[in-house]
Automatic annotation (TrEMBL):
Gene Ontology CC: one annotated term: cytosol
AMP-binding enzyme C-terminal domain mapped to chain residues: 496-573
Keyword ATP-binding among UniProt keywords: yes
Keywords in alphabetical order: Acetylation, ATP-binding, Ligase, Nucleotide-binding
Domain called AMP-dependent synthetase/ligase: residue spans: 73-446
Name of the featured protein: acetate--CoA ligase
Pfam families, A to Z: AMP-binding (PF00501), AMP-binding_C (PF13193)
Length: 598
């Protein structure tokens, strides 16, 4: 195993020091002390709980308590539709609409623990469905509307869906033909003209009262069912409970520095956990204004969204940042981004080049965050008050204990008689693990208890990711355990190679895999997409290879294939397993979350 050399550690990029402005942010003034004294009871005290000590309900904290307090008239959600038209919903209106939806469910006989799915674009009804479902103590499970009928079918069946909220168009195109194969599904409520087999959501909402008293809610009761991104295989259904809110709230405070006067835009669709934890729950729980956009990525539109809505905190993903990096920097300069305090990123490793670009072109720090569907909330972060190390995921948040477990032959944590080893020296590489017990830890993979059990050992949750921690406690992503490449005795993380390739001026994005080789065991192979206007040829290939060799020596790719578009999951991650399967002529596996598939 080759320890990464110190000079490669930062890829030559110095840390970005935070300005005083950030250090005095009211949330963070007492930061070092808060950090030391933090435990999850502190987070519990930030929330109000249901009146009369009747438990903890996410929707109460995100909606009703603001509607019943000084934020009643404040803008809660601004939904921008595809044409750019805006629907503004204040906290009082959100309370009324979600109260109506909860009453609709109650009238349909849908109760605690029942699964309510959504298959909707990012329109107001999606947010009302989510929060109204939680008010009713039913379970909300959002599906990404671009899924094809079969992936939708599989998820509805696995999740025992009783209710589906969708649009007439999506029903006709995707649900009608699978409906009779989902025996648990009793009600399909549609936005738009109802067709046979569906009920009119607007009419139902009109017929019920807007007042709804949230029933007693056990904080341990199931609230959300979220499917993983399917990057490594068939998606799993992760179960989260109302208690998770403690972590949504605390992480939004520490990692995103949210305040009621923030305008917060999370570009992730609620079909992915980021789009629910931070695209619905956390900003509302903080009484901030949540911005949503029904359209997909478009560089000009996105800059306009940021400028026109005076977004102050922006949460997005490396893939989007890489797409912005392909644009002429002039485009950013033409927009007034003066309200924006910083950018946060999650979902994939954030290449140091992207952090440097943010500083240069946006004039803003980009804070990487690490977490998973299973963790429910941000766990490791370059949180706002701390210096950013470009290329690092940051440090564990208050209340989160992370460790790197010694790995065995298969690349995963070595578990011997139920025990694991947790070396503490700096720069060890191990499987990233979290001490169990944080509030947003998933409580199960639905209907897969054995798989769930296998995620835990000796009081640790094993993440399946491999990382390194430097002497100052910053974590550096190496690879998913499945993606680590062993080549001629070296251990190579594709992320490091991809990050170096991206520093070449012609390269837009890279995906790196290990390709079996009789001599080296594996050789490093890179798939590279080029910036617009750059033509692939052998000369360029040699140039990129030479560039990588100079930086990476023996870790540089031995083969490079230019490819206009790399395969991505719908949540924006490079699908290395598919690059590998195609390269080796192997079965492609579950492709339900492949972008562009149906
Ligand atoms: P599946 O589990 O179905 O294969 P997935 O792991 O991609 O899909 P998610 O829960 O959406 O599903 O993604 C979590 C994973 O994303 C992490 O385990 C990690 O591999 C990657 N990831 C998230 N954030 C970061 C980050 N900041 N740096 C590096 N990797 C990250
Ligand atoms: Mg995963």
């Amino acid at each position: 195993m080759k320890p990464p050399a110190e000079d490669r550690e930062l890829h030559g990029h110095p840390p970005i020091h935070k300005t005083r402005e950030f250090a005095v942010s009211p949330n963070l003034q007492s930061y070092p002390d808060t950090y030391k004294s933090f435990d999850w009871d502190v987070a519990r005290d930030w929330l109000s709980g249901l009146p009369g000590g009747r438990g903890l309900n996410i929707a109460h904290e995100a909606v009703d308590r603001h509607a019943d307090g000084p934020l009643a008239d404040k803008l809660a959600i601004r939904c921008v539709d595809r044409t750019g038209a805006v629907t503004d919903i204040n906290y009082t209106e959100l309370k009324a609409a979600t109260g109506r939806f909860a009453n609709v469910l109650r009238r349909l006989g849908v109760g605690s623990g029942d699964r309510v799915f959504s298959l909707l674009g990012r329109i107001p009804e999606l947010y009302v469905t989510a929060l109204g479902t939680l008010k009713n103590t039913s379970v909300f499970s959002p599906l990404f509307p671009a899924f094809g009928p079969e992936p939708i079918h599989d998820r509805l069946v696995l999740g025992d869906a009783r209710v589906l909220v969708t649009s007439t168009e999506l029903y006709t195109r995707k649900i009608a033909r699978i409906r009779d194969r989902i025996p648990s599904l009793e009600h399909v409520l549609v936005v738009g003209e109802p067709v046979e087999g569906t009920e009119d959501l607007e009419q139902l909402m009109f017929e019920v009262d807007e007042d709804f008293e949230i029933p007693d809610t056990d904080p341990e009761s199931m609230a959300l069912l979220h499917f993983t991104s399917g990057t490594t295989g068939k998606p799993k259904g992760a179960v989260h409970v109302h208690e998770a809110l403690l972590a949504h709230y605390a992480s939004a405070r520490y990692a995103l520095d949210l305040h009621p006067d923030d305008v917060f835009w999370c570009t992730a669709d609620p079909g992915w956990v980021t789009g629910t934890s931070y695209g619905i729950i956390a900003p509302l729980a903080h009484g901030a204004t949540l911005l949503t956009d029904a359209a997909e990525f478009d560089a000009k539109r996105w800059y306009r969204m940021l400028a026109d809505n005076r977004v102050s905190v922006w949460y997005t993903a490396p893939t989007a940042i890489r797409m912005l990096m392909r644009q002429n920097p002039e485009l950013a300069a033409r927009h007034d981004l003066s309200a924006l305090r910083f950018v946060a990123s999650v979902g994939e490793p954030l290449n140091p080049e992207a952090v440097v670009w943010g500083q240069r072109v946006l004039g803003l720090p980009i804070h990487d965050n690490w977490w998973q569907t299973e963790t429910g909330a941000i766990m490791i972060s370059n949180y706002v008050a701390m210096d950013i190390r470009p290329g690092s995921m940051g440090r564990p948040l208050p209340g989160v204990e992370a460790g790197l477990l010694r790995r065995g032959e298969d690349g995963r944590a070595l578990v011997t008689d139920g025990r694991v080893e947790v070396p503490t020296e700096a720069d060890q590489i191990g499987e990233l693990a979290l001490r169990t017990g944080w509030p947003s830890m998933f409580r199960g993979y639905l209907h897969e208890p054995r798989r769930y059990e296998h995620c835990f050992a000796d009081g640790w949750y094993l993440s399946g990711d491999v990382a390194r921690r430097d002497a100052d406690g910053y974590y550096w992503f190496v690879a998913r355990a499945d993606d680590v490449i062993k080549s001629a005795g070296h251990l190579i993380g594709p992320f490091e190679v991809e990050s170096v390739l991206m520093e070449h001026p012609a390269v837009a994005e890279a995906g790196v895999i290990g390709k079996p080789d009789p001599v080296a065991g594996n050789l490093v192979k890179a798939f590279v997409s080029l910036r617009p206007g750059v033509e692939p040829d052998d000369q360029l290939r040699l140039d990129v290879m030479g560039f990588a060799r100079k930086r990476l020596g023996g870790l540089a790719p031995k083969e490079i294939t230019f490819q206009a578009n790399l395969p991505h999951t719908r949540s924006g991650k490079v699908m290395r397993r598919l690059l590998k399967a195609r390269e080796l002529g192997l079965a492609e596996g579950d492709l339900s979350t492949l972008e562009g598939s149906s």
